[in-house]
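Give me the fold.
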Amino acid sequence: MSEEVTVTKRQVNEVIREALRDFPDAELIAFFCECGKERCYQTVWLTGPAYDEARAAPEWLALVHGHRAAEDLASALVSSAATTSKREYSGRTIVGAND
């Protein structure tokens, strides 16, 4: 179930990004945290270009600092990569494998 939550949040974030494609590059956009918690509605504030850069690698997740990906999804990501890395954007963390 938590993996489905993460996938759904990512799909919503993709719709948000596409709808705001013409937003000024310096403006922050509110994306949903892509953690596996069903009732997490916290936001990850990123510029459009920062989101695009992070999303260029499909295994990257937009997570509020301290939140984690769904256990089954996280283990699949980590097992498919040698390392896991983090990037900070506007005080929020984008976490993913294959940096």
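The first helix runs from residue 2 to 19.
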